[in-house]
Amino acid sequence: MLQRATLIVAGIALLLTGAAAPAAPDYVTAVWRQQSLEFAYQGTNTAYSCSTLQRRLEAILRSVGARDGLTIVMQRCTDQADAFVQITLESPVEATEANVAAVTQHTSTEELAAKVRNEALPTPENIARFPAEWRTVSMSRDKTLKLESGDCELVKQLRREVFPHLSIRVVRDNLRCSVAFGNVGQPQLSVAALIAVPN
Questions:
Q1: Does this entry carry the keyword Signal (predicted)?
Q2: Residue 149: per-residue pLDDT
Q3: Is 91:63 a contact under the CB 8 Å cutoff?
Q4: What's residue 97's pLDDT?
Q5: Residue 47: how many CB atoms within 10 A of its CB?
Q6: Helix then strand then coil, % of the chain, to nearest 5
Q7: Which of 167, 147, 149, 154 is CA-nearest to residue 102?
Q8: Res 30: pLDDT
Q9: CA atoms of 50 and 83, how far apart (whole Å)
C-alpha cells in the first residue's frame, strides 16, 4: 500500500513538473538578405521633418527584423509632407533552398569588387546561417517605437510598399487613417516578423 502511494505521488510530481516546463522556442534557420528599396512618403495629416522621418523609419524597420547598419538616404526631402527615400537593409529570410540560392547569386560588379578586395563571396555551402523566430510586433503596443496617431499614414504606407518585401505576415490590420477627420489613435497594426535570435 505504501509503495503504491509513493508511486502515485511520484506520478503526480512528474505530471506537475511536465506541465510547468516551458515550451521549447520554435526557431527556424535563416540567412541575411540584403535589399535596396525605394519608399515615397506622402503625408496628408502629418508632415515630418527630414530627420524625424528618418528616425521613425529606422525604428520601425529595426522592430520588424532589419539588421544593425541599415541606411536610409533622404533623396528628396524638404521638411514638407512628402519625401523620397532610399532604404538599404539586411533582414532575415528562412534558409530554404530557393532563398539561399537567391542571396548567393552575385552580379559581375559584386564579383569584380570582391576580387579587387581579395574577398570570397558567400556560396550556398558556406553562407552564414543563424536561428530566427517569428515574433509578433504591435505598432501600438511596442513601447520602444513611441508611435502616435500622426504616424498612422507612415505605418499604412510602409505596410503597403515596404513590408511585402520583408519576412512579415500581417496578423491584425485595423489602421484608421482619416484624411477628413485626422488619425484615430495609435496605428493599429500587428505583424509577425522573422527576427534574428540574439547570440
A1: yes
A2: 86
A3: no
A4: 95
A5: 15
A6: 35, 30, 40
A7: 167
A8: 98
A9: 8
